[in-house]
User: Fold this.
Amino acid sequence: MPEVKVHFLGASGTVTGSKFYLETPEFNIMVDCGLFQGLKALRQLNWEPLPFEAGSIDLVLLTHGHLDHTGYLPRLVADGFKGRILGTPPTLAIAEIIMRDTAKIQEEEADEANREGYSKHQPALPLYTLADAEKAIARFSVVGKDQWITLAKHIRCRFNHNGHIIGATFIELELYGKVFVFSGDIGRSEDLLLAPPDKPRWADFLFVESTYGNKLHPAEDVDSIISGLVRQTIRERGTLIIPSFAVERLQSLMYMLWRLYSRNGIPNIPIIIDSPMGSNVLTVFEEFKTWHKLPMNDYHAMCNHMQITSSYKETWETIDDPRPKIVIAGSGMVTGGRVLTYLKQLIGRHNTTVLLVGYMAEGTRGRQLLEGASELKLFGKYYEVKARIEHLESLSAHADQKELLDWMGGIKNIPEAVFLVHGEPTALDAFRSKIQDYYGWNASIPRLQETVTLRC
Assistant:
């Protein structure tokens, strides 16, 4: 009876750094290859060597393009990986944008640390370079969805639509007759830009995300809340800052604001899109029209209506502009990007509102603001928080507990094992109990670096 060893190298006991390595008698596969984010202790794991040779991996399968699922790929290639990297066309297009952007940031931060002398490493080095990113991109191999792909004699896989972001999938991996299902990040049943997720029909071994395993998204009147914040910003001649993920969230926010304006829900206020990566992702929506439901006439209208910033000079011009305005800038959890420059200048003003949308991971500035931080560390200095902090949780691109259970409800058999991943400890434990009560399935919560052996 063949055995498969599954190594939990990321997204185990945490929401970040997704990496699952499967050793089989004939082929070794990694599902997702993401960077750790958030807490310093997690970020430091990006620098730790993998517990095996990168060259032993034959193939990488990507559920979707987000950094915490793809951002380690350049490092993997630099360490000796020579196989193919499979993903849907939008997933690979997004991963390409994200990896180039991340490599550039890594190089710039290392250069700055060396110039300013504030790193304890001499010299400070990037985790990976732009050249490493290009080598990883050269290994991309496009796959379609809903099609079984033979990988080896007893191994095949299939990518299935999963909502969340454009191109995202859950992956069915059939090994020696047993079906391993990797959920990736599961999207919402109702999404402004994407169709509802498909559901797996069979899973002998299920690996399912648990980001909101302990929560239901609130029933918020999003249009009314945003409209109220915009009108308040105009009255106070202030700035509404919305930190945003470059992929999907930014495009959703743009579409929401455009619809509100076109229906007279908000006045004609300047809307500035300051996310170079997000601007690049807009082209993915234009290129892969069949992968989303954003009408292209609305797409062009909203892009023409908003000011899409291209240079850092324009960032400062926006900050110095005294007019009331809306600024959407990366990054979504306030971990980096252009939004930090805006916050440095404006978070100390009472007429600034910061609207957080979606999940804020432990250890991020977004979580600190959400929990009522009185000051925020930006560029090595602390700044007093006088701005109002608002939160719209219902705009999350992750399924909540009810939607996760519904997604699992398509499975016709009782899985031999269920592994809960991509969640913080309280969410994981709550979801484990809920699955037991709801389906009678026993679920386990693997530890980081844990290995389990499954018999096929």
